[in-house]
Amino acid sequence: MTSEPYLLLSAILFAIGVIGFMLRRNAIILFMSVELMLNATNLAFVTFSRQHGNLDGQVASFFVMVVAAAEVVVGLAIIVSIYRARRSASVDDANLLKF
Amino acid sequence: MITAPTIEWLLLSPLLVLLGGAALGVLVEALVPRASRYLAQVFLASLSIIAALALTITNWVSAEPTIAAMGSIALDRPAYLFWTLLLLFGLGSLALFAERSLGNGQSAFASSAATVPGSPLEREADRLHREHTEIFPLLLFSLFGMLMFAAANDLLTLFVALEVFSLPLYLLCGMARRRRLLSQEAALKYFLLGALSSGFLLYGIAMLYGYSGGFHLHEIADAITAGTGSNSLLLAGIVLVGVGVLFKLGAVPFHSWTPDVYTGAPTPVTAFMAVATKTAAVAALLRVFFVALGGARWDWQPMFAVVAVATMLVGSVIGLVQSDIKRLLAYSSIAHAGFLLVGVVGVVAAGEGVALSSVSSIGFYLLAYGLATLGAFAIVTMVRRSGGEANNISSWRGLGRTNPLAAGLMTLFLLSFAGIPLTGGFVGKLVVFASAWDGGYGWLVLVAVVFSLVAAFFYLKIVVAMWFSEPVEGETAEVGTPSAWTWGVLVVATLGTIILGLVPGGVLDLAGTAGQFIR
Fold first, then answer.
1. B405 by DSSP, 3-state: which?
2. Cis amide leading into B253 (omega within 30)
């Protein structure tokens, strides 16, 4: 089994996540892009785990899932509280703090 | 048959005490009546931090350096040094968190963070004198994560610790009592950019795992020595892990969150981020890059040298034109991140015929910088106008006439930031630059000296405003009367800054014993 296609897919997913983060304006979508990056990493972990023949990478991907879930809780709390105050989840509207 | 893992309970007790204190704090929220929660939480939090500090110092004195918890936590002398610093800074931040006298019996945190700013619900919560005592368990959780981050000996622990200390900080940033929209915006920016940077860190960890087949720092170091893995994976891993940690440190080009978040967050939280986050980030940066990636140092030293120059440039030049004191201190902290990176680039190990290794000199620098920063932010919380903090520098004009004590202490801290002799900041800069010089980065030291002169200029701008300017009519700030909490921070910060400047020998010797990471 060759692992290159999986790593390539992981890199593509990661890049889509980064580009999505840079280009989109809605905080929720930015957040989804970050989740895509984390899942791309999971794919890389599992691929490398298979390649090296140990289970460390698979264990790591479980840790990543748990951490991502915890991050969702905190992140959505912040986004919802901002949405309730401003009636908008666009990061362009959150512009009170600047130089 | 699977053998049970061995856990060094006594050695890990500082971590466990903090985590236990934080978990108990959550229970206190649920079980203790509202009226007595503040006292219970402050008592529990300060007790946990002091107990953790005592246990850390006991272990530092008595225990041999070892790798604990199945290889995931390294308990060596640098770890104990950074833990002691973190716990001291945590205690100072706790004192600023607990301050209520300045706001007429109300803390700097929102009465109810879930309410919409300006809504009837918020006014109702204000009227009932509600307050969030959850800030204390959140502080403990964050401090626990920082301790783990500073001692993480495998990359997975590093990532989990990063999230454990970041998530409570995101929340704390959004909980200011005044100017809540700014505060929420700061929390959003910090959260989104923090999540992005931890994504980068994690992908870097995956690359290093792919390179070496293991998460432990020594496995990566062995793989680099053997040189059998793919170099592109190694380089990608170095860069991406560097991005993740440099973001937390607030180094250019990953600094853009720092001014906004430092300005918007409640001032005690800003103080905590400026001292403790920075300490934890530098500790982890040193450990990962010295222990795991030390064999590839020729690849990352130039990268860090460039980042250090850019960081000092942006911090000290853009700091010159700031008009908000918290924003100015944020740029100051960026400049200091640059000075710290100068020390990291040197990579001087202990016992190579040099006085202090990179790790020891950076530990000393962090102590001097942290004390001055805590003191400066304590003064920022005290200088007030019409009920809130007066953060505009124009309000600080003439402060030396109306309140010489506050202005005098602020001057001392600013002089320490600037690295004027007879303050702790001077000795800190001296030892850090000396270790970079010993590491063969003389040109970087020269650049750093130039930028510390530029940075000194903007500190002196505030000093001049306080002592030699006429107060602006209608914008003059008053100095509130704080409780013993803030006074305690100020006294310790003042004495520490002066003692580190006049007789640094004892602390330098102590830091000198913590020069070498365990592998």
1. helix
2. yes
Record: contact A54-B213, CB cut-off 8 A: yes
Could you give the ipTM of this predicted complex? 0.96
Instruction: Tell whether A89 lies on the interface with B, counting CB pairs under 8 A.
Output: no
Locate the domains of chain A by residue range: 27-86
Residues of A in contact with B215 (CB under 8 A): 56, 60
Please return the burial class of B127, using the count of CB atoms within 10 Å of its CB with bins 0-12, 13-18 and 19+: exposed
DSSP for B167-219? HHHHHHHT-BSSSHHHHHHHHHHHHHHHHHHHHHHHHHHHHHHHHHS--BHHH
Q: What percent of chain B has pLDDT over 70?
A: 99
Structure tokens at B459: 């500190």
Q: Would you call A31 and B192 a contact, using CB atoms and an 8 Å cutoff?
A: yes
Q: Say yes or no for a CB contact (<8 Å) between B209 and A56.
A: yes
Report strand pairing: B66-68 vs B73-75: antiparallel
Q: Which of residues 39-68 of A touch B (CB under 8 A)?
A: 40-41, 44-45, 47-48, 51-52, 54, 56-57, 59-60, 63-64, 67
Q: Model-level pTM greater than 0.90?
A: yes
CA dist A59 → A19, A46, A52, B74, B142 (Å):
28, 9, 14, 21, 24
Q: Which amino acid is residue B83, in one-letter code?
A: W
pLDDT on residue B474: 76
Distance between CA B48 and CA B7 in Å, rounded? 21
A76 at the B interface (CB within 8 A)? no
- B139-166 pLDDT tens trace: 999 999 999 999 999 999 999 999 999 9
